[in-house]
Design a protein that fits this description.
Blueprint (H helix, E strand, L loop, with lengths): L9 H16 L6 H8 L3 H7 L3 H24 L6 H16 L1 H13 L1 H14 L1 H10 L7 H20 L10 H9 L5 H9 L2
């Protein structure tokens, strides 16, 4: 994928270092000192730019999510529904497959942080409803059902998590048929979803 995550500012370099350390050591074993060493700065600079280990993780998670979602939305601008769902999900899976360190670090951190991490992850899943809004509008619904959107988003997240736990993040683009079927099942007939998969 031509697009990718970019963390070039001093703060961004600390976030990138945070991802590498969490990926290597796990969230619970990550320290500010290790993040600083990885980033090539001193510990007080990490604390000044971002904060403690938890603040570093949450800043990383937020930046990772924001950049990912921005790239995906840019790829789907002016693309009609339901092809926009296909293009957006394809872009998401391609981007995640190219950034395994960030995917593993994000998942490890939210799992380690328990309920608070779960709330952050749930917020990210809720943003997935942006892909579904045109489908609900086409059905004449007043808006995306939050509960329904969360169910679909959680199912898509399960596919991503399964690939991460099985060390198959690089294979995520191959999961597009499964993910697209999950996302579009309430809106499109199976043959229409199949047609989207072969259309370019």
């Amino acid at each position: 994928m031509a697009d990718g995550l970019v963390f070039t500012t001093p703060r961004g370099e600390v976030l990138a270092a945070t991802a590498r350390v969490i990926d290597r050591r796990g969230y619970r074993a990550t320290t500010v000192a290790e993040i600083a060493l990885e980033a090539g700065v001193r510990s007080p600079e990490v604390r000044r730019l971002v904060g403690d280990e938890e603040a570093c993780f949450y800043a990383l998670f937020g930046a990772f999510f924001h950049q990912t979602f921005t790239i995906v939305l840019e790829r789907t601008q002016s693309v009609p529904w339901p092809r926009s769902a296909r293009e957006g999900l394809a872009a998401l899976l391609e981007l995640l497959s190219s950034e395994p360190v960030y995917v593993r670090a994000a998942l490890d951190g939210v799992w380690a942080l328990g309920a608070d991490g779960g709330v952050r992850l749930e917020t990210a899943v809720e943003a997935f409803t942006a892909f579904l809004t045109p489908g609900y509008e086409a059905l004449g619904e007043p808006g995306v059902s939050v509960f329904h959107g969360q169910l679909i988003g959680s199912a898509v997240l399960h596919v991503i998590t399964r690939h991460a736990t099985e060390d198959r993040i690089a294979d995520l683009p191959r999961a597009l048929p499964e993910v697209l079927a999950i996302a579009l099942a309430p809106f499109c007939a199976a043959q229409d979803i199949d047609a989207l998969l072969i259309a370019r």
